[in-house]
Amino acid sequence: MDSYLILKNALRESRLFKNRVIVAWLVVVILIGLLVARLVFLQVHDHDHFTTLSKNNWLKIIPSPPPRGFIYDRNGVVLAENQTSYSLEIVPEKVPDMEAMLATLREIVLISDSDIERFRRAVKRKRRFDQIPLRFRLSEEEVARLSVRNHALPGIVISANLTRSYPLGQTGVHAIGYVGRINEEELKDINQADYSGTQYIGKTGVEKSYEAELHGTVGVQEVETNVMGRVLRVVKRVDPTPGANIYLNLDVALQSFAERLLEGERGALVALDPKSGGVLAMVSIPGYDPNPFVNGIDADSYRELQHSPDRPLFNRVLRGQYPPGSTVKAFVGLAGLEYGVRTPESRTWCPGWFSLKNDNHKYRDWKKTGHGHMDFFHAVEQSCDVYFYALAQDLGIDRLSGFMHRFSFGEKTGIDISGELTGIMPDRAWKNRRLGTAWYPGETLITGIGQGFTLATPLQLAMATATLSMRGQAYLPRLVFAIEEANLQQMRLVSSQAPTQVSIRDPVYWQTAIDGMEAVIHGSRGTAGKQARGLKYRMAGKTGTAQVVRIKQGESYNAKKLAKKYHDHALFVAFAPVDDPKIAVAVIVENGGSGSYTAAPIARQVIDYYLIGRLGMFGGKYEPPPPVEANKATQH
Amino acid sequence: MHTPRFQFHLDIPLLGGLLLVSAVGLVVLYSASDKSLDMVLAQAIRLGMGFGVLLVVAQVPTQRLLHWIPWVYLGGILLLMVVLLVGSVGKGAQRWLDLGFVRFQPAEIMKIVVPLMLAWYLADKPLPPSHHRLGVALMLVLVPFLLIAKQPDLGTALLIASSGMFVILLSGISWRLIINTVLLVVVGVGVLVYSPILERALHPYQLKRIEVFLNPEQEPLGAGYHIIQSKIAIGSGGLYGKGWLNGTQSHLEFLPERHTDFIFAVLSEEFGLIGVLVLLSLYLFVLTRGLYIAASAQGTFDRLVAGAISLTFFVYFFVNIGMVTGTLPVVGIPLPLISYGGTSAVTLLMSFGLLMTIHTHKRLLSGQL
Questions:
Q1: Global confidence as pTM
Q2: Most CB contacts within 10 A, which of A349, B180, B192, B265?
Q3: Does ipTM surpass 0.90 in this model?
Q4: Are residues A560 and A416 in the same domain?
């Protein structure tokens, strides 16, 4: 009985299942039928249409790369532009004998071994029907020579491209940056469709940080070509949108003037407009010519630049981290006023040295005999170290450091190109994190005069100075002034955001600090007093000399005996005119010895040139200042 | 005493069909790969291994597999979760698991295991399944579907879901239920396409695929390019094709996937509609044989498994050809046994091994009673 039921159920299930399978099979056949119908449609009904497109005429989709936006300085001087250049390219698939072809080509035009190298590598990477460049920047004569032989050179294409060119060469190179060929890393990060047909991408500076605006949008052409690849007609076209033009805050005349002043040295200078944060000059010396980088600089030249001890590729303005030295003194003094640890009238006795309680170690003042009774004003004017040792001790490192942070010490300024470093404004937590040790009281003292762990970039110094000159109004530093979109008629100003205000307890203290810095130049004992000679306006500033090498107790610094690389760095910060600041400058001359001897004159000339020569103030006729007689390198 | 002679379990017609398809594949591959003997050899070796696996699997009666299945399924689910957590990333998706000495995609395993699992579960009790069991079966499909779709690998996820659904469909649920569900799905897809929900659920490139499918002319530099070029290649093949090796020169220049997903376009261009019909006949033959094996199989489990495998095979080539002709959106499904690439062919042949074992391991009823 049981087995009969089982058999009956099994048979029933089997029959049901068979029905399902048959239904499934029918559905499948119908669907395949639809597919066949579609194929018949394509291969029979529309066969002629597709054959036409494929056999005699090819349908090719060609990207139209957008022309890259130009970069100008604030007065419209061209800093980066596109120039038409011709390159020699080969389609390997169309060349029957590559070696013979290369040999023939070398007889017609000059092709270097490294060109051949690069070409061979590209051939491996790309497809056989791609156009692979062999030589760039053909001269008109070379183009002619090749064109004449065109019929005998199958697979050879002379392609006209726009190549990026930097007419001013080294001037402003670190700010402007350069473009180069897109590499594999970058290929992953970009929208490849948008970059079809584009070979270059910004690598550093404004070229990189404003890549999106400068690049524009790619266009497309659907074209019919014949078997030879010649375009017969354009079927459809979407025009590319050219990249936007960019106007920088940079004043190229000022920039090259400053670069000339620093020639032969290693160092940096940055000039800001305190009322907008606009970067008027960004100088890092030595520089380099960006033009060879566009199409690929040869390995030897690159190695030379990379290994040069003067580090021309290094942007000292953003990434040079130096001990700021005495240039921070006005800020430290302001911290004392802010925390009520000092008043503007408080006096400290300076015998030429300072010691911590129960400690024999003497922290020396640069003036061995001491400065006598010092208040804030005179301590800044004469750059007394002892005043600030004592002040730092009374403030404590955490308060001192916290106050300095308000001026962007130890933090990024937020400038609109990448690569900036934060420097170091140490405090207890920082030292614990980085070095795992406790903070020593002596370290507070030397932080008070801008030495020790403290490091700042020239940009930070300039920005802090500009903020001080504007009584706490801090603008974000900006290289770019305006962007001119291709399709719009007007310019879009890259408006700096509203300034942040560094607030202090009593705004009167700003004046105290400014007065002290003014006295550095105009006071009777100012450490940069020599700069007052012939000065047509009031300038405020601060000298700084940063130790590179530690002087042992009891010894003295003797520049003549030390190798140049151990000479102190020379620094100077300044702004002018004092009552209505139009420019703030930070200069550093590496191993320059004395701030007042080496760095101050450079800042003064730059400011003169800007106010008188460029802005036309105070008579409008720029003249170089009277020469300063050679002086023993006085500290500070 | 009757010593059973050793029987080599093999279904000749099925084997023949598969070998013919593979041979066609190698011939087309030679052309699509720009005459690269290396590629053809590599593919032949892979196919050889696949056939080896097929032969081995064909010797194992399904009885032996039964109690392993739920464990392998569980293991597969766990591996899928691990992939989501730590899988090494390639091409923007997390699909691979790198164990140092071997790298594999757990999703590949699931292609076979999911229908087996469903068949195992549903065959346990008499068909058709109760609503409760149906619900559980749906969960068994849904979980791996979601895990794989999240990788993201929507193509494979849909494939696995469909193979699971085939088992369910074949398990005898009422026709009314099927038709209602199909209508619901069609309406649901229609609604989703026109509502913002889809935009948030799918990745941008998947959305792009749908847009491009609906209007390939819109994206001529990007995704739409494949379809435009593919249609030209297929259409220009005409009735007789351009002849072997004569098509690849220019048209598919710009078709990077021409030896993988778009290889059908190469075949159409070179062998024309005739060639296409030959291939479709071979595929249909294999499919029919598979369904025949299903219909004549013994036991619910064998039937369900055989049916699902055959229908899944159909989905493979239907979706690929549909995609290449611009009839369906682009999902990365390879053309079975013809597209260049390893794991897919091996798992496919493994499943055909299952078909063979189902067919050749029949107990003679007379012997039992």
A1: 0.62
A2: B265
A3: no
A4: yes
